[in-house]
Design a protein that fits this description.
The protein has helices spanning about 15-35, 40-55, 60-70, 75-85, 90-105, 110-120, 125-140, 140-155, 160-170, 175-190, 195-205, 210-225, 230-240, 245-255, 260-270. By secondary structure, it is mainly alpha-helical. Among the domains are: about 15-120, Alpha Horseshoe (Serine Threonine Protein Phosphatase 5, Tetratricopeptide repeat), CATH 1.25.40.10; about 210-270, Tetratricopeptide repeat domain (Serine Threonine Protein Phosphatase 5, Tetratricopeptide repeat, Alpha Horseshoe).
Length: about 270
Amino acid sequence: MIRYFFLFFCSCYLLSPALQAQKAEDYYNQGINRIQTKDYNGAIAEFDKAIQVNPKYTNAYINRGTLRYMLKDMVHAIADFSKAIELDPKNENAFLNRGMAKKSIQDYEAAIYDYSRALAIDSNFAKAYENRGIARFITNDTLGAISDFTRALSLTPQNYMLYYNLALAYKSIGDYTNALENYIWVIRFNPGYTQAWFNRGLVKFYLKDYTGAIEDYGKALELNPALIDAVFNRGMAKIAAGDKAGGCVDLNTAMRSNYPMAAQAIESNCK
């Protein structure tokens, strides 16, 4: 009996390190292209391929983690940023992004730790100061938040949201003068920011500048006529300024919109 032996030749081959790096970069660039067309799942798939070819591709982990963060997949986003940190412990962006992901799951202390690690690498990292300030504000470290927002503002003075966050922080500790100054800057940079006009109206009311408060609430209503909070507050400001009739018109408008405190305010001020 004749035995037949067949030889099978595998067509597979190993890429050289240089070719592996190029192949991983090709997948990476395809991922970037898919991001630009908002095909985020497709981009993740390309970054998967890049990482499969080059498991030490730090930026692929960071970008995949960023996409997972955007898609609310925080567990895997944190894992990707952690892997990037393992590969490159001096990568401030990986620490920043992991901090943002941890803040999203309300792990604020861990987020503050990551922002601080980013700042230990780059002491001029404005985004890390800004985000650490937000986390500190949420955890009631208001003075720490003010310090961080102020430092971030010195690095990026055109960022109107830093003025806004500073104003919120000052307002929360009753420092209405500094809050007012920062709302002024917000409105200079972004005069269409409804909430800034509304909040500046609140601060002016607390400072007993009732005319200024009425004007700011009016501007907020120009920008958003459905903002019933502004109608109610303007009514209270008008009454405080001596315009009882005008104030009661606003309070009645608020009551018709079922504003919770309107009926009691009318009972106290308009009878």
